[in-house]
Amino acid sequence: MRQKVKAYPSAAARAGGQMSEFTLDDLERIVAERAGATDGSSYTASLVARGVAKAAQKLGEEAVETVIAAVSGDKEGVITESADLLYHLLVVWKISGVELSAVLAELERRTVQSGLAEKAGRTAS
Ligand SMILES: N=c1c2ncn([C@@H]3O[C@H](COP(=O)(O)OP(=O)(O)OP(=O)(O)O)[C@@H](O)[C@H]3O)c2ncn1[C@@H]1O[C@H](COP(=O)(O)O)[C@@H](O)[C@H]1O
User: Fold this and answer.
1) Cβ of 23: how many Cβ atoms within 10 Å?
2) N or C terminus of the chain with fewer C-beta within 10 Å?
3) Does residue 93 line the site of ligand 1, with CB under 6 A?
4) Phi, psi (degrees; rounded to nearest 5) at 72
5) Nearest atom within ligand 1 for CA of residue 45
6) Distance from the CA of 13 to the center of ligand 1, in angstroms?
7) Transmembrane region positions (predicted)?
8) Cα(43) to centroid of ligand 1, in Å?
9) 42 CB under 6 A from ligand 1?
């Protein structure tokens, strides 16, 4: 979990209804670039070097921290823990050879029906 720096405005306040131009494509590119760093300056490279089990463990921890923040009604925490969660998810994808475009294609494929319709079809078969 990242330390929260109280001198700065909260993530929710910083967002302030404005759209960020930063995308998951940008983060995927950064993770790919940093994964190969060999000078000891990159957390991403150190996580990739420790392998998928460690990266997946970190992903699980960040998921639990996001859940705790949500259940606690901590909006600031949901934002910061979700950022940790998405970053670690992209590191797991990188190690696993999965690209954001493949996940988006799967999400797009699912837009043809509602989640409830998909669930009903699954339980009927
Ligand atoms: N978005 C992130 C990001 N979110 C979280 N983290 C790091 O994830 C780590 C998780 O911290 P924890 O306290 O949970 O774990 P820890 O005890 O420090 O580490 P472990 O020994 O458990 O692995 C911290 O070091 C955070 O800084 C991130 N590290 C990197 N990025 C992005 O990746 C870019 C490249 O970073 P480097 O690879 O470090 O250059 C950065 O500029 C950011 O854009």
Assistant:
1) 10
2) C
3) no
4) -80, -5
5) 38
6) 22
7) none
8) 5
9) yes
Any ligand 1 atom below 6 A from CB of 44: yes
**Residue 37 in tokens:** 């760093």
Which domains, ranges and CATH numbers included, belong to the chain? Answer: 51-111 (1.10.287.1080)
Residue 58, ligand 1, Cβ within 6 A: yes
- Tell me the whole-structure pTM to 2 decimals: 0.87
Residues 6+ apart with CB under 8 A from 117: none
